Amino acid sequence: MSSMKSGSTSLPSAPSSAFKLPPQSVIFHPDFLSVLGATPSICVIASRPGSAFAHEAPIWVKETDEVFFASKGPGGSASETSDANLNTQVSKISLKEVETALQAAGSSAAPVNVTVTKMTNGGTGPFRGSLVLVNSGRGPLPPSVALVDPKPPYSTTILLDNFFGRQFNSLNDVKIHPGSGALFFTDPPYGFLNKFKGPPAMPSQVYRLDPETRSVRVVADQFDKCNGIAFSQDGKSVFVTDTGAWHGAGVGINPVEPTTIYKYDVDPATQAFTNRRVFAYADAGIPDGIQLDIKGNVYSGCGDGVHVWSPDGTLIGKFFLGKVSANMTFAGKGRLVILAESEVYLAQIAAEGFDLSFP
Predict the structure, then answer these.
(1) Which one of 209, 290, 294, 339 has the fewest beta carbons within 10 angstroms of its own beta carbon?
(2) Total domain count for the chain?
(3) What pLDDT, on a 0 to 100 scale, did the predictor assign at position 348?
(4) Domain membership flag for residue 14
(5) Could you tell me the CATH number of the domain that includes residue 64?
(6) What value, to the nearest 5°, has the Cα angle with vertex 163 and ends 160 and 169?
(7) C-alpha distances in angstroms, 120 versus 131, 183, 260, 276?
(8) Is residue 132 part of a domain?
(9) Residue 41's domain spans which residues?
(10) How is residue 213 annotated by DSSP?
(11) Distances, alpha carbon 173 to alpha carbons 38, 170, 343, in Å
(12) What is the pLDDT of residue 248?
């Protein structure tokens, strides 16, 4: 296990791309020291060079100490949008086995062959014992919200696959509201931009789904491309990333468009998102998946690793990987599992996430 190198507590004069020898911690503010703790470390716990097997939908299952996650979906030409055989792969890694494996040659992630519609991109939970996965759909197959048993044979129940008869664009991320247990998910047009879905039929919006009644409604709009979502521990605030700058594979980033995290209040009666304000702007890549720790610090996967902001929106540090991280999840106290496409990292730090499951 390699130790993370701590940077200066003053603002570096060089851009993020100038830092060498990743992975390492880069400290922008002394508050990041309380995130790292006295003996932080980071190491690769699974690797498949050339394969984006560890992309999104990280879910920690406390009972088995396993982390589930999904691969990146295949890109393609417009002619491939009707190919129902193309899909993502959901995998899992046992953190119980990681410590033993790290003493030897390393660890690996095992495919679990979860059957969902097409193109899993977001995940959270567990919700009443099941994983919550959102799927982008592919070709004519609709995007959907699904519950998946984390135990073999990974039985799947589709909760929702339309908005009053209209297909969603390509569902991206999902979180459970801590108080009510309602499911909130984002729906940007990335299926169309990455050429595996048709043109968007609705704006980029955030939706609320009541898992009991299956009632669904819009709770926030006016995004370019809403992406990651995360609630505060008390459920009174919510953070949504807008990755409007990213225009899809082969196009890249337009630097004058949003790479922004917005913060909202959650209306206590309707759970609509209100009082929108800018929380932070990502300086490298786009702020994709997003998580919070128990102190209210905000973590987001960006173009060079994981960025960490204090509750007031100050960038306090980075887990600098030198590569894109789309998402991450806390796996109990002091463990942050970071997905970086061809690698999975385990950061052992002082920070602690709160329980994202719902009983």
Answers:
(1) 294
(2) 1
(3) 95
(4) no
(5) 2.120.10.30
(6) 90
(7) 12, 16, 24, 28
(8) yes
(9) 23-352
(10) T
(11) 33, 10, 21
(12) 83
Residue 357 lies in a domain: no
pLDDT value, residue 10? 34
pLDDT confidence of residue 225? 98
Burial of 330 (0-12, 13-18, 19+ CB in 10 A): buried
User: What type of residue is 302?
Assistant: C
Q: What is the pLDDT of residue 285?
A: 96
pLDDT tens string 85-133: 568 889 999 998 887 766 555 556 666 655 555 689 999 999 999 999 9
Q: Which of 157, 165, 79 is nearest to 114 (CA)?
A: 157
List the 216-220 sheet strands across, edge first.
174-176, 183-187, 205-209, 216-220
Contact predicate 322/140, CB 8 Å: no
Global confidence as pTM: 0.90
Region of residue 159 (left: phi > 0; alpha: psi -120 to 50; beta: else): alpha
Q: 80 and 86 in contact (C-beta within 8 Å)?
A: yes
pLDDT value at residue 109: 67
Query: For the CA atoms of 100, 104, 106, 110, what is the dihedral angle to 10 degrees?
Result: -60
Max Cα–Cα distance, the chain, nearest Å: 55
Residue 358 domain-assigned? no
pLDDT reported for residue 252 = 85
Q: Say how many C-beta atoms besides its own lie within 10 A of residue 269's C-beta.
A: 5
